[in-house]
Design brief:
A hairpin with a 2-residue loop joins strand 9 and strand 10. It contains six helices and ten strands; from the N terminus they run αββααββββαββααββ. The termini are far apart. Strands 3, 4, 5, 6, 7 and 8 form a six-stranded antiparallel beta sheet that branches. Strands 1-2 form a two-stranded antiparallel ribbon. By secondary structure, it is α+β, with helices and mostly antiparallel strands. The chain folds into three domains: about 80 residues, Antifreeze-like/N-acetylneuraminic acid synthase C-terminal domain (Type Iii Antifreeze Protein Isoform Hplc 12), CATH 3.90.1210.10; about 120 residues, no CATH class; about 80 residues, no CATH class.
Length: about 350
């Protein structure tokens, strides 16, 4: 046997014995720590013995008491099952409670109360439902307890031009229920028709007004993203990447065309007024001639009466001939092009 092999075997034995010694020391220290921990005063806290979901009734077999350090009992927790079930009537869970999770007063109803949506509302807040569909409701991936932004899409008519835009109406709004389900333990996507959110009184007024002013849609936020952010209005111009200069040029072209149309309409109006004035003048001359023709001369006694010939003046109205050529405007996109073409009779 080689010498280096013997050396390796000896070193392995030495390291093995050292490992055993250190393991014994570590186990002894752990036993001492546990022994010291048993001397710490402890209290009890009520936890869920089985998983609880929204609407489950609390009973003794669904709860149990576990040891808890004195002075570290969480606020709102119950120390005994008797305290958790005290009162006239049963209590129900308002949200999902996992096994061995402490049961807090805020997660269950009062004695004799039902697990309704009103019991989940924060003080001073209101529950408002908005109508959504499979797209506007984030394809059914919004669940009770999620945070969403509410978007408002509107179309306005400004001087005959339709303008569409989207605003962020509310941010970080808590979802209380989807359709008629308020159980936060629900985890399967479902296409819903309505979503109920928790908002302040003023925001409830905004939502009610916005429901009739445009179309509401939801944007799901990150679970921990409850902070607001700066937002701005998005218009159709933002979709095409037009610069403000492009939008100004297009608007100026539209304004110029609108002014040209107004000037042409005014010119036609003046021409019609002139034609109407000529027609009225011709009619007045004709009526005066008719009156003169109906006048009979007084009889004159004379040897040889002189017969006077009455000359009747006739004024004939001649319709002015239309111009031989006409100007036609054609829009190519937003640009107006004009052509001088012969008029067809």
């Amino acid at each position: 046997m080689r010498a280096n092999t013997i050396v390796m075997i000896v070193l392995a034995c030495v390291f093995g014995m050292l490992a055993v010694v250190f393991a014994n020391f570590w186990l002894a220290s752990q036993r001492n720590a546990l022994a010291r921990g048993n001397d710490i005063p402890s209290d009890t806290v009520v936890v869920a013995a089985v998983p609880l979901k929204f609407g489950d009734t609390l009973t003794e077999n669904k709860l149990r008491e576990i040891a808890w350090p004195v002075g570290a009992v969480p606020a709102g927790a119950f120390k005994t099952i008797k305290d958790a079930l005290a009162g006239n009537g049963t209590r129900q869970a308002l949200q999902a409670i996992s096994t061995n999770e402490p049961v807090f007063a805020s997660k269950i109803t009062g004695p004799g109360q039902r697990a309704t949506l009103s019991a989940v509302l924060t003080e001073g807040m209101k529950a408002v439902s908005i109508r959504v569909n499979d797209v506007l409701g984030v394809a059914g991936f919004v669940f009770p307890g999620d945070r969403v932004d509410i978007l408002l899409t509107r179309t306005t008519n400004d001087s005959g031009v339709a303008k569409s835009f989207v605003d962020v109406l509310l941010q970080s709004v808590k979802v209380l229920a989807v359709d008629q389900v308020a159980d936060e333990s629900k985890d399967s996507p479902t296409v819903v028709k309505a979503v109920t959110v928790e908002v302040s009184t003023k925001d409830a007024q905004k939502l009610t007004l916005a429901a009739g002013a445009g179309q509401l849609s939801l944007a799901l936020r990150q679970a921990a993203g409850n902070k607001g952010e700066a937002t701005e209005r998005v218009t159709v111009a933002d979709l095409t990447g037009d610069t403000p200069e492009d939008v100004a040029k297009r608007q100026a072209e539209l304004d110029r065309q609108k002014a040209a149309d107004a000037a042409a309409a005014e010119e036609r109006k003046r021409a019609n007024e002139k034609i109407d004035g000529l027609a009225q003048a011709v009619e007045r001359v004709g009526s005066q001639i008719d009156e003169l023709s109906r006048i009979k001369p007084a009889p004159v006694v004379a040897a040889a009466p002189e017969v006077k010939e009455v000359v009747k003046e006739v004024v004939k109205y001649v319709q002015p001939e239309p111009p031989a050529r006409a100007t036609i405007g054609v829009f190519r996109g937003v640009k107006l092009e004009t052509y001088d073409v012969p008029r067809q009779h």
